[in-house]
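Minutes, project check-in
Item: structure for the 287-residue chain
Input as provided by the requester:
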Amino acid sequence: MHAHQRQPEMPTLQVLPVAHLLLHEQHDTQRSEPLQLRLQQEDVLKNPPIVAPIATNGGGEDEQRYVVLDGANRVTVMRALGIAHIAAQVVDYEDPELVLDTWHHLIKGMQGQRLLDLLRALDCASLRQTDLMQARALLARRDIVAFVQTVEREVWVVECRGDLHACNHCLNEVVNAYKSEARIFRANTDHLDELLPLYEAVTALIVFPRFAPAEVMELARVGACLPAGITRHLIPRRALRINLPLDVLRSPQSLAEKNLWLADWMKQKVAAKTARFYQESTFLFDE
């Protein structure tokens, strides 16, 4: 390391009660069911969920709650397995390096006309055809809750009136309309032409709005969840591949004892030089 380079700040890892974690998005059964099988087979937590503290009425440490920014499936699976504690990376939601972005849904296994018929049948929304430029403008102003691009290059906007909670209800209805019949791939662009060469037999792209952190917190506070796979949090200095044995989290030790164990584990990892910070953008091919 050169003299002018600084040691990167280590991520904050803590063992937290699963009951103190609030989801801001629904879990995804297409992902959570295979994850549960993998956790049972491997018996390790590979990647900790990302959480941020949220203010509570009690104000004491025992009453502290955390919003799960990323990892709804992991938290849901730990609950299903009856494991009371989980290792999580705690972040400051006001960190200027933390970015809240949006995932869109690329649809496979459902014809575009079937998708449009399902959306037309919703009581909470109306469907109107337009062009791509206008759809993008309406979404940017939050005048619509989503828009659909089909592979036939038709563009349909999904209109819903109301406050944050009404729009969130409608978004859940939109995703519920197709999630059981279609296979969903997450995409970070609304340029359908860029996505088609990467996937086979997709039929449509559903584009969602960008949310603000305050909206995520508000929904989590009252127990209202966004649909799975819409919010995308980009976390600086993210902790991955911790490979923490689930036996540590299952053990009858107190929460304080488990956190002391985790702190010592981190010191050992640093001392053994097995914790490495990758500053460059990275592709992983073993997810």
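Outcome recorded: The chain has a mean pLDDT of 92.
No further action items on this chain.
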